[in-house]
Design brief:
CATH class of the largest domain: Alpha Beta
Helix content: 10-25%
Oligomer: single chain
Number of domains: 2
CATH topology of the largest domain: Spore Coat Polysaccharide Biosynthesis Protein SpsA, Chain A
Bound molecules: uridine-diphosphate-N-acetylglucosamine, calcium ion
Strand content: 25-35%
CATH architecture of the largest domain: Alpha-Beta Complex
Number of strands: 33
Length: 422
């Protein structure tokens, strides 16, 4: 990570050993998904995106499942018994030893924190030369969280857990998010002094704050502006809540960029989608991660824009349309009840109602290529692989199994016969 033009060594430790009993699931809670991406994968990507030089996941319960998702994107430490957050970090000690720099502590089940927030945390820690920088929040109802104890000067003194707090400490509204940036060497030194002599009999990571303060080491905090960022997932209701928060965050981002969203509540735009100005998104639309949509398009209602789609400008994707791995040229209309998969469609085309690409032969996915200015009649099947030239007309009801050259009309349907009724 580069801060003030200087390269700084930053590691991240992700706690991912938890049980997740309240999920009522055969799966580790960490592999449950928000917008198709596992919670723990979100956190790992976050760690990488802020510029971590090394990422360590402390795994335990159902660790094979977590490892199956993260593969070799992280290094692993193991925590077989959950003896507390301090104990969890100690399991990663072998990776921290001998290193100089910062270590960020994250949780596999706290997945929607913003990159900018974490960067601010690390930057403040480095610029202010703090040995521990906490990410805190102000909660109207702080019950259950560790409270931040500050002196009259506002300096952080310690964190007291709910179960260990006295009646005055319980009144404190500033809470510990559990996310920190530590100096690696001083964290390791402080961890040697933590003891499980508290109400829960656990090794508390939070105890290192007091230990550092007693040693005269400077500590500090960043108060998170948007409290939803530090929400965690413990049960299915929280999983839904976080999905909603992320959905609203993504929608707000696109609206800010000049996209009209008719119904915020039924629009699901996954991560990393690009949408051009003046495009209108109608209700009940799902747009998957990585999709690119141009300017002045009309999308929906009931559109399902799946992975790997690139849509030009002034394109209309109408109601009940599903597209996947598709490129669509400018001004083409895909108005209603259409499935396009593994296809390329040129500019100024019109795809008739009920058209489908038969892209899957049971073994392979095959491609349909349609040129510019195509007029595809209603209810056409393209049995891929098939290539259609420019300025082609396909007669309604055709099942196209062979290529159609440019400037041709393709017709492939039974000839109609009329028989007199008896
Ligand atoms: C912790 C903090 C508390 C903070 C709160 C925010 C401590 C002692 N307390 O409390 O100040 O307000 O988070 O949510 O750190 N975990 C492990 N191994 C363990 C213990 C925990 O991996 O041995 C993981 C859990 O799966 C969970 C996270 O660490 O993801 C937090 O653990 P938990 O025991 O729930 O801490 P809290 O009591 O919530
Ligand atoms: Ca907890």
């Amino acid at each position: 990570m580069i801060i003030d033009g200087k390269e700084q060594f930053v590691m991240t430790v992700i706690m991912a050993a938890g049980k997740g009993t309240r999920m009522k699931s055969r799966k580790s809670k960490l592999v449950h998904k928000i917008f198709d991406k596992e919670l723990v994968k979100r956190v790992t990507e976050l760690a990488t995106n802020i510029g971590s030089d090394e990422v360590i996941a402390v795994v335990g319960h159902l660790r094979e499942q977590v490892e199956d998702v993260l593969k070799d994107t992280v290094k692993y430490a193991y925590q077989d018994e959950l003896l507390g957050t301090g104990h969890a970090v100690m399991q990663a000690a072998k990776y921290l030893e001998g290193k100089k720099g910062k270590v960020v502590i994250l949780y596999g089940d706290v997945p929607i924190i913003r990159e900018t927030t974490l960067k601010t945390l690390v930057e403040k820690s480095i610029k202010n030369k703090e040995y521990a920088t906490l990410l805190t929040a102000i909660y109207e109802n702080p019950t259950g969280y560790g409270r931040i104890i500050r002196d009259e000067g506002g300096n952080i003194k310690a964190i007291v857990e709910e179960k260990d707090a006295n009646m005055f400490e319980k009144e404190i509204k500033e809470i510990n998010s559990g996310i920190y940036c530590f100096d690696i060497e001083e964290l390791l030194a402080a961890l040697e002094h933590i003891q499980p002599n508290n109400a829960q009999g656990e090794y508390y990571l939070t105890d290192v704050i007091k230990i550092m303060n007693d040693k005269g080491l400077k500590t500090g905090a960043v108060i998170v502006e948007d409290n939803t960022e530090i929400l965690g997932v413990n049960d299915r209701a929280q999983l839904e809540l976080l999905t909603r928060v992320l959905r609203m965050r993504n929608n707000a981002y696109h609206m800010k960029n000049g996209v009209t969203i008719e119904d915020e509540n039924s629009t699901y735009i996954h991560d990393d989608v690009i949408i051009g100005m003046d495009t209108v998104i109608r209700p009940n639309t799902i747009i998957k991660s990585g999709v690119i949509i141009g300017e002045n398009c009309e999308i929906g209602p009931n559109a399902y824009i799946r992975e790997n789609c690139i849509i030009g400008n002034e394109v209309k994707i109408g109601n009940c349309v599903e597209i996947k791995n598709v490129k669509i040229g400018d001004r083409t209309k895909v108005p209603h009840f259409i499935y396009l998969g593994d296809a390329e469609v040129g500019e100024d085309g019109n795809i008739g109602c009920g058209t489908i690409t038969c892209n899957y032969d049971g073994v392979n996915k095959n491609k349909t290529v349609i040129g510019d200015r195509a007029f595809i009649g209603s209810n056409v099947n393209f049995v891929a692989p098939v290539t259609i030239g420019d300025d082609v007309l396909i007669a309604a009801g055709s099942t196209i199994t062979e290529d159609v050259p440019s400037n041709n009309m393709g017709i492939a349907r039974e000839k109609q016969t009329n028989k007199e009724r008896k």
